[in-house]
Amino acid sequence: MFQLPLEIFLMRRGLYPPPPGESDIIGLEVAGTVDSLGPGVKTNWKPDERVMALLSGGGYAEYVAVPEELLMPVPSNLTLCQAAAVPEAWLTAFQLLDFIAQVKEGEVVLVHAGGSGVGTAAVQLVRLFGAVPVVTAGSPEKLKMAEKLGAAAGFNYKEGSFAKGVHDFTGGKGANVILDCIGGCNWEQNVSCLAVDGRWVLYGTMGGRSVDGDLLGKLLSKRGHLLSSLLRSRSLQYKANLVKAFSRRVLPHFSDQSASLKPVIDSTFSLEDIAEAHRHMEANRNMGKIVVNVIPQKQETQ
Ligand SMILES: NC(=O)c1ccc[n+]([C@@H]2O[C@H](COP(=O)([O-])OP(=O)(O)OC[C@H]3O[C@@H](n4cnc5c(N)ncnc54)[C@H](OP(=O)(O)O)[C@@H]3O)[C@@H](O)[C@H]2O)c1
């Protein structure tokens, strides 16, 4: 079972090649069961154990080889379908908020694409860290869902200025952190609603890659930090550290008493309907993750 993130389209078109040595089969995250262990495995994974994993490629397959450091146990109350929606989206959101932006309690975090896979994870993690998430999205349904997940406010970027929304919400102070997967078309509003000393974390460019205007002057006047990150090209050691930190700080909250964290599944497709799944995502219709089931006969029991 694997999940369908947006980079898949770039991979499908050959525009996001795998890092050297990685599988050229696309697919960046999976959940399933351990089939067998390679020689020299040091940890205690056992055949048939339910696991989920971050991949650099190879997820569109029935079997995938995974370095043991990148495996995580599936929380007991999650189905494999739900678990397939966790690794890449949640590790990305966790990495951006914790390793890169170092979000602190009480800070206001603006999450763009609040209805996306990464966005729905980020909103919940911001709350978990005691900070205040606000979001942008392109439809009232997506804003409503983000608010249900914990967003304190939401702004429809198609209907007005989100920068004004953030200014109003923060009493003019601005957002301490911006998680930005949009880039180009939003730069002016981003820098305008960034708080003094704020951290603007770029991790995608869905709204364009080039900027024309006084970005540097405006950023400097805010003493702003422009940070960027890609997860896929990171070293195995970095990813192993990320998986370890995530497993310790976040994973227990998927199955604690209040089950405070929930992977958000938009829809599931069987592998035969993969083209339809891609069209669904390309139309920006999904709220949360699209999961693809590679072994349909197992779907009922997981
Ligand atoms: N740097 C990394 O390591 C890393 C890792 C994972 C993902 N990513 C990036 O994170 C982003 C989100 O990935 P995902 O898989 O979570 O996406 P997703 O679930 O497919 O959601 C993407 C959403 O982004 C919004 N969007 C698309 N184009 C937009 C535009 N031009 N302006 C504003 N909003 C736009 C759409 O929602 P609306 O209806 O609200 O517009 C769309 O549904 C992608 O850019 C992906 O490449 C980066």
TrEMBL record:
Keywords: NADP, Oxidoreductase. One of its GO terms (molecular function) is quinone reductase (NADPH) activity. CDD domains: p53_inducible_oxidoreductase. InterPro entries: ADH-like_C, ADH-like_N, ER, GroES-like_sf, NAD(P)-bd_dom_sf, Quinone_OxRdtase_PIG3. SUPFAM superfamilies: GroES-like, NAD(P)-binding Rossmann-fold domains. The keyword NADP applies. Residues 14-292 form the Enoyl reductase (ER) domain. NCBIfam families: quinone_pig3 (TIGR02824). PANTHER family: QUINONE OXIDOREDUCTASE PIG3, QUINONE OXIDOREDUCTASE PIG3-RELATED. This is Quinone oxidoreductase PIG3.
